[in-house]
């Protein structure tokens, strides 16, 4: 017979696993599996922010076009309430930079009797995590939205990342961007970019052009300043900090 603690964990996990939110939030309540329809004119409103605003536009496009279906059958009860018309995003501290230990907490509420859901976060980076969770609560065509849902979430670890070595194995810019996008979908926040080492020096430095000209694997295997700027900006728009590691030429 399972211990009371194990039974509690199983009861706690059922609402989360039924809808398939990943990573599983710290707290998620969906006591009755209600769902409502998503309005064709659904919008997301949020404060203007250089990186949150592009994220909002990206998630709005994703929500309206993806038509995601859960891996397992999902039995829900459709509410008699109005279709969901809007997600209202509020952020307490818009100036907080994406640095180690930044507050990434958020709270998400999707009521059964209102046409508006709310997402509140301490920082823009927490709002991005909440947008990812919200996007996972929408499925089907026509789109359904889990209703009567309350989520309160924050990361266990401040550093959640991967390392990519582009010195020993060159990766195209588009491959790096795709990797960062996948990291964001899993709420990872640090891209440790081991750019150079003894094997190659692929960074084009205008002040020292010979380093890449003679140190890279070839002219088509280099990262220009524009490439690097694009990767950094893309990372910020996805809540992923680019942490470069540049070994001095030896």
Describe what is shown at a glance.
With 250 residues, the chain is of the alpha/beta class. It is built from six helices and twelve strands.
Written overview of the protein:
With 250 residues, the protein is α/β, with parallel strands linked by helices. Strands 1, 2, 3, 4, 5, 6, 7, 8 and 9 form a 9-stranded mixed sheet that branches. Helix 4 links the parallel strand 10 and strand 11. It has 2 domains: 21-153, Chitobiase/beta-hexosaminidase domain 2-like (Chitobiase, domain 2, 2-Layer Sandwich), CATH 3.30.379; 161-246, Transcription Regulator spoIIAA (2-Layer Sandwich), CATH 3.30.750. It is built from 6 helices and 12 strands. Helix 2 (52-65) runs parallel beside helix 3 and helix 4 packs parallel to helix 6 (225-237). Helix content is 30%, strand content 28%.
Structural class: alpha/beta
Q: At CATH's second level, what is the architecture of the largest domain?
A: 2-Layer Sandwich
Write down the oligomeric state. Answer: single chain
Q: How would you name the CATH homologous superfamily of the largest domain?
A: Chitobiase/beta-hexosaminidase domain 2-like
In helices, the fraction of residues equals 25-40%
Mean pLDDT, to the nearest integer, reads 91
